[in-house]
Amino acid sequence: MVLKTFGWSFAITALGLVAAVFYGGWQAFGIVAILSVLEISLSFDNAVVNAGILKKMNAFWQKIFLTVGVLIAVFGMRLVFPVVIVAISAKIGPIEAVDLALSDKEMYEQLVTDAHPSIAAFGGMFLLMIFLDFIFEDRDVKWLAWLERPLAKLGKVDMLSACIALIVLVVASMTVGAHAHQHGGVHVDKAQTILVSGVLGLITYMIVGGLSGYFENKLEEEEEAEHEAEEEAKKSGKPVTAVAMAGKAAFFMFLYLEVLDASFSFDGVIGAFAITNDIVLMALGLGIGAMYVRSLTVYLVRQGTLDDYVYLEHGAHYAIGALAIILLVTIQYEINEIITGLVGVLLIGWSFWSSVRRNKRLELEGSTAEA
Fold this sequence. Notes:
Keywords: Membrane, Transmembrane, Transmembrane helix. The chain is mainly alpha-helical.
């Protein structure tokens, strides 16, 4: 089971590390290995959330997520994305940006750093909306009940998530403006950039999340209709036609997963610049890490881990909330990537431990009732 799920990840790791040695010797090997670990630690919460969505898909779409999705994640977000950032921020062509990344690494890193506020605002708002929509929803299973019960009641207010997210965005942009003003800096453009990028993050979430939610509901309706049709067919002996809606619903959920993965990878890509500004090593290291996140997602789905450890999804969403706030704080202040990674790991570890304790308690109660 482990080899079947992680086989591709092991193969890509071996190829990536060998390529690193040929490209830059053992020092490059070490950098790629560190980047891989960084990406896995920063994206563990991504795997848990992805698994929650992926378990609703059939085997075909799970396979698409592991193949086409990996190409988008590795080549799109970990290789093309840093180049696109530079091309947009420096107002140069993509080919010139690649040339700059390979020939003048210091200048390239500076341009990516300059583009960080807009990336952080976009990614931070997208992730913040995921977190807010999760905590304001009334759920049967509650992890931190003292906090989640009152928040679920508040969640009955329409558009509350979007209102809070926009308030956070306005505060973030005003803080940047005030800070720049105190230090005699030009702040209007930066504050405006943060506002526009944040609003675009919010719009992206609403479009993709809205479409995936709509088609998910349609899928449930079609499945009910299909089930009823099957029951009728059994009685009358007629064949039943397959429902096409499942493909459309799964496609939008796949699209949502890709945007989600893109938002999660912002911190990994930005964090990678703290270790190296070589885009080849960056693509190799982050690409290996992205493969493990993908494989871990599928492993969680196939093992039914989310069903066994019911608080894992809660922990992952709290980690998303923490990551969103960290991204927005990094617009103004520098936060070490180790802290970013540790916050997510600690929250998920705590939720896993809580799930284990709950399972033991239920087991004990069950055995007591039998006795």
